[in-house]
Structure formats: structure tokens, C-alpha cells
Specification:
Helix content is about 40%, strand content about 15%. It contains 14 helices and 13 strands. The strands form three sheets. A seven-stranded mixed beta sheet has the order 2-8-7-6-5-3-4, sandwiched between helices. The protein has a four-stranded antiparallel beta sheet with strand order 9-10-13-12, with helices on one face. Strands 1-11 form a two-stranded parallel ribbon. This is Threonine aldolase. Its cofactor is pyridoxal 5'-phosphate.
Length: about 350
């Protein structure tokens, strides 16, 4: 459909003209040998952007998170992870398959946090008892996708890091949309990431690069992660082709994320005016809007088919929710049109 309004994900963003130009002109080498100058520049900038000593370019956020888990947690250990987290739900159980790591899902609270009492309950009463798998890592997600793009507070992150340190284990942050969190709160990404021993963030979501994610942490951690990347098939040769787009993403695309947040707020406010749609505009802080269809005779599947027939694509998100994600490919007029389409569909079904 020529004029499709795409709201399934910010992964549908296309590279900018500046990115395409940079990709065609990138100076290249062999990244497996550490000799791609453009990839090296990206990794240096990426590490600096989140205040870590080193970083490694990965093909995807899934691989970056998996590499982090495999480095941090020994075989037979546990990773404590939210039961609504992307790592637990959407990354194919990779840590168990590849690393013999046990996932222990922790209840996720509405604000995306994991209660310290629930985390504490995952530690065995006697760590010397050989019956128990021992926790080796805590994972948090910021912003939190399935909680509607919620940003974890600095106070909570500091409290979590103190808890983890007290229990002798590190914290990994799935910061796929960390720059959305930074823009929404005015807190630098470096300050947010300071509460984690390692962090993953995506270049290919709101930042609009065509491919790539970054894993950042201490230098020895990243050295081990490079070995894991190679083992997983992520060793790349002339990686500078897409690293060039990542450089553009980090130098020119972060501040404009505020526009995506404004579009999301516009969408939530518009949907709140539609009878038969249940949405809380006050809960929308970044670029993700979650809502429920409450109109009689209109279940989620029928709703999604109906809006798509009119040129609007959204996603089913579990727990009876629909997800809409704003991004660079959407204008204010697109958002207004989306609200009108939803209103028409609900009205016709009533």
C-alpha cells in the first residue's frame, strides 16, 4: 500500500540521505582483524556516548544481549530477568541454548522495574548448597518496551546497582532505546548507563540506521564479547559500510527523538477521545503507545485487520493490548490520520 502509516515498530525507519552517502564513501578494512577504521571510530564514539571504556559493534541487539549474558554468567548459572523483558520473551532463549544459562523471570512492575525483594528471593538461602543454580547477573530494560516505553528512574537504577554490588553480581542494561530515555528525562545516556556494568543499545530503531547495535562495558569485558561475537557468527569484514550510518545516527539523530515523543503524546491524546479505546495519555513518556480496544464486537484481530485495510498498521502486544510506535517516518499529519482511521473503525463496529 503506497501511503501506509507504519506504526508497528521504529525498526521500520529507513536510513537518511546523509547515512546513505556516508555508507557509500566509508573507508573500509577487515573488522575481524580490528582494521576497519570506520567501525573503530563508531565503537570509540559509542563507548564515549554511554560513558564506558570500550564498545563492540554487533549485527543486532539480540546478539549484543546474548554476548553480554555469555560473558557475565558461567554455564549453569542464572540470569535474573524481568518476565516482561525482551531478553526473556523475544530473544529465542539464546542464553540457555548457547550458554547453559538458566533464566529466572522476575515479576515486572507497571513502571518497568523489578522489586528488590523479588530479586532477593531468587538468591538461594545457602549459596554453598550444590542443589541451586547461582545468580550471575541482573538484567534491566530501559526504556521498557512491554511497559509502554517507560523510563527507569535514576533513583531506582542506583538502588538496583547497590543491591547487585551487595550480592556480588553485575547489572546488564538492555538499553535498546537508551537515547529515548535520555531525551525524555534530560539525563545524559552516560549517567543512565553508569548504573550498569554493561549496556546494549540499538542504532537501527529510532536512530534510523539500517543495521547494528552496540555492546559497551569495561575493556576486558568487550574483549571477551568479541570472541563470543565471532563464535555466534557475528564477525564482520567491511563493517564500516553500515558503521558509517551508525556514526551519523549518533552524531545527528539523537535530539530529534523528541519529535517521536511528541507524536506519541499526540497519538495517545487523540485516541483518548475515541469512545471504545482505552488509553492513558499520562503513561506515554517516549515513543510507544499501548492501548486497548473496548468497543463491543471488535476484538484485537478484527481491529488490526480493519485499520490495515484503511492504510494503518499497528501490532498486537499481548494482554489484550495494541502497540503503536512513533518514529522518523511519521509526521503529525500521519498521526492525525491514524486517529481518524481508528475512530472510523470503532464507530463502524458499534
Amino acid at each position: 500500500m503506497a501511503d501506509l502509516i507504519e506504526m508497528r515498530s521504529d525498526t521500520f525507519t529507513l536510513p537518511t540521505e546523509q547515512m546513505v552517502s556516508a555508507m557509500t564513501q566509508a573507508v573500509l578494512g577487515d573488522d575481524v582483524y580490528g582494521e576497519d577504521p570506520t567501525a573503530n571510530r563508531l565503537e570509540e564514539l559509542a563507548a564515549k556516548s554511554v560513558g564506558k571504556p570500550a564498545a563492540c559493534l554487533m549485527p543486532s541487539g539480540t546478539m549484543a544481549n546474548l554476548a553480554a549474558l555469555l560473558v557475565h554468567v558461567p554455564r549453569g548459572g542464572k540470569v535474573l530477568v524481568g518476565n516482561e523483558s525482551d531478553i526473556y520473551l523475544y530473544e529465542a532463549g539464546g542464553a540457555s541454548v548457547c550458554g547453559g544459562i538458566v533464566y529466572e523471570p522476575i515479576p515486572t512492575r507497571p513502571d518497568g522495574t523489578l522489586a528488590l525483594d523479588d530479586l532477593a528471593a531468587a538468591f538461594p538461602p545457602d549459596p554453598d548448597d550444590p542443589q541451586f543454580a547461582l545468580p550471575g547477573l541482573i538484567c534491566v530494560e530501559n526504556t521498557h518496551n512491554r511497559m509502554g516505553g517507560r523510563v527507569l528512574s535514576q533513583a531506582y537504577l542506583a538502588e538496583l546497582k547497590r543491591f547487585a554490588t551487595g550480592h556480588g553480581i553485575p547489572v546488564h542494561m538492555d538499553g535498546a532505546r537508551i537515547f529515548n530515555a535520555a531525551v525524555a528525562t534530560g539525563v545524559a545516556a552516560e549517567q543512565i548507563a553508569a548504573h550498569a556494568d554493561s549496556i546494549q543499545f540499538c542504532l537501527s530503531k529510532g536512530l534510523s540506521a539500517p543495521i547494528g547495535s552496540i555492546l559497551a562495558g569495561e575493556a576486558d569485558f568487550i574483549e571477551k564479547a568479541r570472541r563470543i561475537r565471532k563464535m555466534l557468527g557475528g564477525g564482520m569484514r567491511q563493517a564500516g559500510v553500515f558503521a558509517a550510518a551508525g556514526l551519523v545516527a549518533l552524531t545527528s539523530m539523537i535530539d530529534r527523538l523528541a519529535e517521536d515523543h511528541q507524536r506519541a503524546a499526540q497519538l495517545a491524546a487523540g485516541l483518548a477521545e475515541v469512545d471504545g479505546i482505552d488509553v492513558d495519555p499520562s503513561s506515554v513518556t517516549t515513543n510507544i503507545v499501548l492501548f486497548r480496544v473496548t468497543a463491543n464486537g471488535l476484538d484485537d484481530d478484527r481491529f488490526l485487520r480493519a485499520v490495515e485495510q484503511r492504510g494503518l498498521v499497528m501490532g498486537e502486544f499481548g494482554h489484550g493490548r495494541i502497540r503503536a510506535v512513533t518514529h522518523r517516518g511519521l509526521s503529525s499529519a500521519d498521526v492525525s490520520a491514524a486517529v481518524a482511521i481508528v475512530a472510523d473503525v470503532v464507530r463502524e463496529a458499534s
